Amino acid sequence: MLARSTTRPRAEARARGRMRLGSLGARRILLAYALVAPVVLWRFATSVYPFAYTAYLSFFDRSPVRRSFDFVGLGNYVALAQDPDVHNTILFSGIFAAVSVSLQLVYGLASAELLNRRFPFRNVARAVNLLPWAMPAIVTGVAAVWIFNQDYGLLDDLLWRVGGGRPLWLSDVSHARLAVTFTDVWKNTPFLAVIFIGGLQGIPTELYEAARVDGADGIRAFWHVTLPLLLPLIISVAIFVAIYRVLTFDIVYALTGGGPGTATSLMSYVVYLQAFRVLNFGYASALAMVLFLMVLVIGILGFVLLRRAWARL
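Structure (tokenized):
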């Protein structure tokens, strides 16, 4: 009887302790949800809802100019599928992203290799390297207009003094596309160089010493040591850079305005024109959904390549 009387209070005390712990855990969970809720609601209001409403508008003929809000189903998608300007814009967007990302990766790796070496005033050189990236893209585009000007541009003046020719950079289709691509590369590569410098500094020096003992130095060390170890970082950076290149707007807006004609128009610029110049919200929403699919394809492809790169390490 005495044993039963002593074990019962202990069991009740344990039960009360578990209830207290349970109530404390519930309070902490509720507190965590309460702290996270404003961020989740803000993200929903600024990302999820606009995306869902854009997808919704893409099935309507919505224009405040014509005062129309009529359901057209896939009409906007059929219209853009039959529009040759949209075809050229999608093609140029893909070529622009591929060329710009490739040049930025090569130029960024080369710059990082140089800036990672020890030399006098290295920190000053790194700071100067970041100046193009720190400049606003609109300022870069306006300055590039002066540089590529046919009559008094800096680049044409140099080419005229060397070879006697003055290319029509902003009037010819191929030259205008080169001007947009080179300006974008010059503007954004310094940021990649800084990221690659951090990756290079994370590679142990013992690996280079071992490679040097095995006879791998210079280009061989870069090919067999640096590149394999940086490959996951390179792919990760390439994914984000490619997405931002597809979404590029400001350099095209300031440098060429999509011209000549629609030769340098990117998808984001066409969405801007249809939404805020023509005020054709339904068609612009359909274009925005196509742009989203392009970004989605880049993300999925990059994720697959990134997993393979990590698997090889």
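The CA atoms of residues 119 and 125 lie 10 Å apart. The first strand starts at residue 60 and ends at 63.
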